Amino acid sequence: MTSERRKLRGDSSEMRRLRGAWARRRGRFAEALAVAYLRLKGYRVLERNWRSKLGEIDILVKKGGVLVLVEVKTRSDTGLASGAVMPRQRQRLMRALGHYLKTRPELAALDLRCDVVALGPLGWPIHLKDAWRPEA
């Protein structure tokens, strides 16, 4: 392999690293914006970025007798963001939520709802209530 190819290869891995850092920064900002938006709508934030070996939940909020799992999605188009939670990810989120409820049994009696907060490049977040149904 020539030194020029090594340079290019090094540059591409550096570019991937920078893109990954930018994506994480954008994701943290989007989650902070979603939390502020949900608080303005009267939700009480219980958890942010809750992690277990079964998965990560972006935001868990409560309003009245409803516990809401919120997945935050950023895309260039908010319509694309709303459909970005695929079935496999939904299953992983529900397994993580089941584990969370085992650690917080006082919340298990609440009704469950799964929402998406979609963020595009401009404008307010779009809150999609009942984006999918938790499987019983």
Walk me through this protein's architecture.
With 136 residues, this protein is an alpha+beta fold. The protein has a single domain (3-132), classed as Trna Endonuclease, Chain: A, domain 1 (3-Layer(aba) Sandwich), CATH 3.40.1350. It has helices spanning 3-40, 78-82, 87-103; strands spanning 44-52, 55-63, 66-74, 111-119, 126-132. A 5-stranded mixed β-sheet has the order 1-2-3-4-5. β2 and β3 (66-74) form a beta hairpin.
What can be said about this structure in brief?
The protein has about 140 residues and is α+β, with helices and mostly antiparallel strands.
Describe how the helices and strands are arranged.
Layout: H1 3-40, E1 44-52, E2 55-63, E3 66-74, H2 78-82, H3 87-103, E4 111-119, E5 126-132
Parallel strand pairs: 3-4
Antiparallel strand pairs: 1-2, 2-3, 4-5
